[in-house]
Design goal:
The structure is a single chain. The chain is of the alpha/beta class and about 500 residues long. It folds into four domains: about 100 residues, BRCT domain (Rossmann fold, 3-Layer(aba) Sandwich); about 90 residues, DNA polymerase, domain 1 (Orthogonal Bundle), CATH 1.10.150; about 50 residues, 5' to 3' exonuclease, C-terminal subdomain (DNA polymerase, domain 1, Orthogonal Bundle); about 200 residues, Beta Polymerase, domain 2. It is about 40% helix and about 15% strand. The protein has 21 helices and 14 strands. The strands form four sheets. The protein has a five-stranded mixed β-sheet with strand order 6-8-11-10-9, sandwiched between helices. The protein has a four-stranded parallel β-sheet with strand order 2-1-3-4, sandwiched between helices. A three-stranded antiparallel β-sheet has the order 12-13-14. Helix 1 links the parallel strand 1 and strand 2. Helix 5 runs antiparallel to helix 6. The longest helix has 18 residues. It is elongated, with a radius of gyration of 31 Å. The two termini are about 55 Å apart. Bound molecules: cytidine-5'-triphosphate (CTP) and manganese (II) ion (2 copies). One manganese (II) ion binds next to helix 15.
Length: about 500
């Protein structure tokens, strides 16, 4: 059977409420009613208006700023908000300081009581919090580099759940799925309110169906069975344990899991082959998985600054990565080294490393030479494809040995780490060197967060036809490099509002 043809109704102008009844004086001046005509109908509205006035209530139009009580029949809170807006009421707001939105039950109870009865929960219409905010305040931007993402936000329980899912997907090699969860979490981090209802997600970018399901579970039950299942799974726990070893990635961890290995002790028992990096990682497992605190990071940065300055006057060392974004602790210390005279910085890192080694500051290090010269000779094609990959600076991944008293740092030559521990701590330190012409690009590229960086590059390419990496910004159509003397200038080239490091925690 064919469905009935639906006649499209034009939204009807509500009839103006007739003026106050002179025969019935206002008895409750602090209460001003507005009756929602939608679904109630004009006739019934007129009847109820007369009734209310006869009992000494004041009734006015939706437009009136005096309205304190909005009464509706058969509409949801959201429908009432929409109706009010459409009918010229601009006194509704997201924080609920506008008029009370009430069901007809409050009205009928008040009429039989002959006075406005106390508003109870059962009388109130539920509004999806912040519905207006999402409509009015414009949408949350789709790229992380267009949003401000502070370190602490309002949706931690939700983002932790989504990030567990992202990590699990990463452990399975499903990078696309992982990115989906990471992006959904990142959007929630940028919200200025705590999400309480799943409806609030409509209109937000990057929140896929699976993420939405997880969020809904969390909101309704306070936990997600799926996320808990992941957290308790043998594979997830083992993968987490193994990938926390410095030098061990998903591939290696996965292979060990397949081979039946489950604990760190298993690696020794089975004499698993480990490279130098992994051996150091295993040896210092506990320290390297204890968060690095800011004073420790600053103490290390200061040691390196002093050495750099001695070896090459004018050299500077900048704390980058998470600490530059304002994190109070992190998994490592990231340092960017440069010198104001272009080219002077060449070779500095190996001298710094040599000195640190001679003073027993390093428990492990692996350096890589600058490969940028080669990089510059590559085809343009190569340049753009490498935009998403690693940069080619001279760099060093290391494990630093920090004396237990930040400020009075000592290498402590030959000292064994005592059983009681505590005299020193192993800390991962990443060094990277940039010539000063590339410094702003390196600074921007190494400050993170990873998700912020990923979206900066994606935005550049997709929206601006430019490739951005930690060395340069290249305009693909004009075939030119755009120079910059500061991070601000890079944002300007990209037509982006400048986002300070503390708001790049996407
Ligand atoms: N980075 C990079 N190339 C790598 C590793 C890291 O460009 N091979 C960049 C990342 O994009 C990030 C920054 O270096 O912007 C810091 O990375 P990392 O130390 O891993 O993360 P943090 O944000 O510093 O977080 P944490 O506090 O856990 O160290
Ligand atoms: Mn870091
Ligand atoms: Mn790092």
């Amino acid at each position: 059977m064919l469905p009935h043809p639906v006649k499209k109704k034009r939204p009807r102008e509500p009839k103006p409420t007739p003026p106050a009844d002179p025969g019935h004086p206002v008895r409750f001046p602090e209460v001003v009613l507005c009756l929602v005509e939608k679904r109630m109908g004009a006739t019934r509205k007129a009847f109820l208006t007369t009734l209310a006035r006869s009992k000494g209530f004041c009734v006015e139009d939706a437009k009136s700023e005096r309205v304190t009580h909005v009464v509706s029949e058969g509409n949801s809170g959201d429908e009432v908000v929409k109706w009010l807006k459409r009918n010229g009421n601009c006194y509704m707001d997201a924080v609920g300081s506008g008029p009370a939105l009430l069901d007809l039950s409050w009205f009928t109870e008040s009429m039989s009581a002959g006075r406005p009865v106390e508003i109870k929960r059962k009388h109130c219409l539920e509004v999806t919090a912040h519905a207006e905010k999402l409509e009015g305040d414009s949408q949350v931007a789709a790229y992380a580099c267009q949003r401000r993402t502070p370190l602490t936000h309002n949706n931690a329980a939700l983002t932790e759940a989504l990030e567990t899912m992202a990590e699990e997907a990463h452990f399975c090699g499903s990078e696309v799925r992982s990115l989906g969860f990471t992006r959904a979490a990142s959007v929630l981090k940028a919200l200025s309110w705590a999400v309480r209802r799943v409806q609030e997600l409509s209109g937000l970018p990057c929140i896929g169906e699976h993420s939405k399901r997880i969020i809904q579970e969390m909101l309704e039950d306070g936990m997600s069975a799926e996320v808990e299942g992941v957290r308790q799974s043998d594979r997830y726990q083992t993968m987490k344990l193994f990938t926390k070893i410095f030098g061990v990635g998903v591939k290696t961890a996965s292979r060990w899991y397949q081979e039946g290995l489950r604990t760190l002790a298993d690696l020794q028992v089975h004499r698993t082959k480990l490279n130098k990096e992994q051996q150091a990682g295993l040896l210092h497992y506990k320290d390297l998985n204890t968060p690095v605190e800011r004073p420790e990071a600053e103490a290390i940065a200061q040691v390196v600054q002093e050495v750099a300055e001695q070896l090459l006057p004018g050299a500077s060392v900048t704390l980058i990565g998470g600490f530059r974004r304002g994190k109070r602790s992190g998994h490592d210390v990231d340092l960017l080294i440069t010198h104001p005279a272009e080219g002077q910085e060449a070779g500095l890192l190996s001298k710094i490393i040599g000195w640190l080694e001679s003073q027993d500051f390093l428990l492990y290090h692996s350096s890589r030479r600058n490969t940028f010269q080669y990089f510059e000779e590559e085809e343009e094609q190569e340049i753009s494809s490498s935009a998403s990959g690693m940069d080619r600076f001279e760099r060093c991944l290391s494990i630093f040995r920090l004396g237990n008293c930040p400020g009075a740092v000592q290498g402590g030559a030959g000292a064994q780490k005592p059983g009681a521990s505590g005299s020193w701590k192993a800390i991962r330190v990443d060094f990277v060197v940039a010539p000063c012409s590339q410094f702003p690009f390196a600074l921007l590229g190494w400050t993170g967060s990873k998700n912020f960086e990923r979206d900066l590059r994606r935005f550049s390419k997709q929206e601006k036809k430019m490739t951005l990496n930690s060395h340069s910004l290249y305009h693909m159509e004009q075939k030119t490099f755009l120079s910059a003397a500061s991070e601000e200038e890079i944002f300007q080239h990209l037509g982006l509002e400048y986002i300070p490091p503390e708001e790049r925690n996407a």
